Amino acid sequence: MKRIVQLIAAALLPALPVALSAADTPRTPSIVFILADDWGWGDLSCHGHPWLKTPNLDRLAGEGIDFQQFNVLNPVCSPSRTAVMTGQYPARVSIHQHFAAPVQNHERGMPDWLDPKTPTLPRLLKEAGYRTAHFGKWHLTNRETHGAPKPEAYGYDEAAVFNGGAEWPSADLHATAKDAVAFIKANKAKPFFINVWIHESHTPHVPTPASMERWKHLDEQKQVYSAVITDGDNAVGMIIDALKAEGLENSTLVMFSSDNGPESTGSKPKKSSVDRDAKVTGYDTYYSIGDTGGLRGRKRSLFEGGVRVPFLVRWPGHTPAGAKNNTTAFTAVDLLPTLCAAAGVSLPADYKGDGENLLAAFDGKGISRTRPIFWEWLGNKAEPDWWPRLAVRDGGWKLAMTEDAQRVELHQLLDDRAEAKDIAKEHPDIVARLTRLALDWKATLPEKPNPACLTTVSDPQKPGPQKPRVKGVTPEVRSKAFDRWDTNHDGFLTLDEYQAGLKGQENLEARFKSFDKNGDGKLIREEFVR
């Protein structure tokens, strides 16, 4: 009888928790963000590319979520990456275009580096106990800029980068994934955050011999680009294989994206270009045949082909395998609040971000962004797709416009992802509302960069304080001449345009070639101004 009473009493007691082994204990997720360069939405085989093969990216998509409405917040590198780092629109810190030499930055009203006092994702995670690292491209300053803050100023424990400051050592383009793998192995005992910003598919294209051999059956143009994409996909494979080998596959949130849409295809060059930072020979924009997946525009355009990019997320136990999210308008500024939420990190009380916490989308829920999305573009205005200076999206509506709102286009992206049909005339009320949103947002932006983020060395060949430039052929004068002579407004100067602009002067062909360092027969603004 006593035994029966004991059994009944035991059954009525609350169950005690079962001790979990170290392997079963829930772990704060490690985070790996792989960011490609100029990689188009359509440059994945899982997005339907006719011949490119990206098995490792396809694996990520098959084991996680493919977000098909992910936008970056600028159609070129540096401002796009600023949005990722800070969770703020890059125009809020006067970063409008890519970081170039200081003279050009100042002409554009830009700083020479991202302000290290700005709240950053790596710093927030480091303060919460994460080990943090950045490997690969930097471009939050420029390699001709002296005195730029180093990665540790932004919250990184370890870094090996290319396209950093003038005094920084430069990493090997092809060592990025290897550096990340080594960091994973060395820091597997605690949560880590790694930015892996790969070079592919930016120029100069520097494909490995093995990848070139794989695609030797194609013509040279396709061979080079296919090899570059293969190299980038292989880097992704190295990282996800390392996570599996170290037993971290199920506790790591892995993301892949790109900083903007694909580069425009250039004319066939007379010779290869040389990347001065990496000290390697490569191929120029003739080999840039990236695919937007049917989206309008490319790099430097505020249309979707310039700002809608791949975004793949794998987080075992959270992301449903093989899911496609074509409803959530996810953006680069949403990454900081979303990843902090995933890591259990509270945002500072005084943090003023432009993003939203969309963590529920990582769990497969059809969450909607509630705030409008804004873009600004201050680069070339060339036709047909670079002319918009401002754009705003609210729900499925997207308005592209000039700075004075005298030219607008309205598109309903849910029905017209290619932005092929302008419906502004049919919806004047929506045009008026979105125009006011864009202009009101523009009015909140600073007119000048933070003076603390300007170098005192304007000429990289002459370190130290310098005298002001004398009047004459200054970069400002060259930039204005570029705009006058670029008669078809395509963002390039041909020899014919150059000769027409300087009609009657001597040695024009030789002078043109002195600017045309890569021998592709045309000049971009940077080549001519610098």
Briefly note the CATH topology name of the largest domain.
Alkaline Phosphatase, subunit A
Strand percentage, roughly? 5-15%
Q: How far do the termini sit from each other?
A: 97 Å
- Poorly predicted ranges: 1-25, 274-280, 462-472
Q: Shape from CA axes? A: globular
Describe it for me?
The chain is an alpha/beta fold and 530 residues long. Helix content is 28%, strand content 14%. Helix 6 (176-186) packs parallel to helix 8 (220-245). It has 3 domains: 30-362, Alkaline Phosphatase, subunit A, CATH 3.40.720.10; 373-443, 2-Layer Sandwich (Arylsulfatase, C-terminal domain); 467-529, Recoverin, domain 1, CATH 1.10.238.10.
Key terms:
530 residues; alpha/beta; Alkaline Phosphatase, subunit A; Arylsulfatase, C-terminal domain; Recoverin, domain 1; eight-stranded mixed β-sheet; four-stranded antiparallel β-sheet; 16 helices; globular
Summarize the structure in short.
By secondary structure, this protein is α/β, with parallel strands linked by helices.
